[in-house]
Design goal:
The protein has 273 residues and is of the alpha/beta class. It is built from 13 helices and eight strands. 55% of the residues lie in helices and 13% in strands.
Amino acid sequence: MTQLAFIGGGNMATSIIGGLVKQGDISAASINVSDPGAEQREKLNTSFGVNTFEDNLAAIADAEVVILAVKPQVMKDVLLPLKSTLEARQPLVISIAAGISMTSLSSWTGCKAIVRCMPNTPALLGEGATGLFASDDVHLDQRNLADALLRAAGITVWVKEEAELDAVIAVSGSGPAYYFLMMEAMISAGQKLGLSEETATKLTLKTALGAARMALEADVDPAELRRRVTSPGGTTQQAIATFEGAHMRDMVEAAMRAAYDRGAELSKELGDD
């Protein structure tokens, strides 16, 4: 049985652990989690039966896979005290932190087999979308294992270049917030048009869910779905024309470009070899 160690037991780690335990492919007894918070450790142990530790070194002692789930800003400080142990054991290292490059991870851990991945918050519901990139030293079995671990929280997509992870951040990593903003705007507009907040909220959220399911299950792309529900001269056409007139596509592209650029900036700011 593969021994896993999570460094950090926050929301994203919890979502992956929950998915793994639910699937049953990896037993709770083979999962170690270290976290500085006693309350969080107790919650993880009670909810999933995993082994919890305050000490990171104790958590990784027998690990074949070490999943780094701490904030990017503290990653270096967390890893350097573990470097001698990690370098000697050479586990597969999986990082779910944005902005920490392969070069930095290798320098701070002394490990060769590293996978960087970028999950998003719907992983908390098992509906995540994760982009992954592997170093050249990750062999096929390790790649498949990393894929299986992240699929416990949703779908996985592998990219060929590390720089593509910044694009993953722009699309799916930050993406949920774009949709939340659209929901906010629709709820507000619905209220201004005379609906109660409760009614506007219910209609908006169910519409978002329904549209997403249609797009996922349809045999055509979203552009064709949009055309099919846009009758010439109708209400939807008027709304779409207003969006297009306000250059909505350009605005979305500019926003995603800003997220992409910030991801690249974080790599430079947080990386330190």
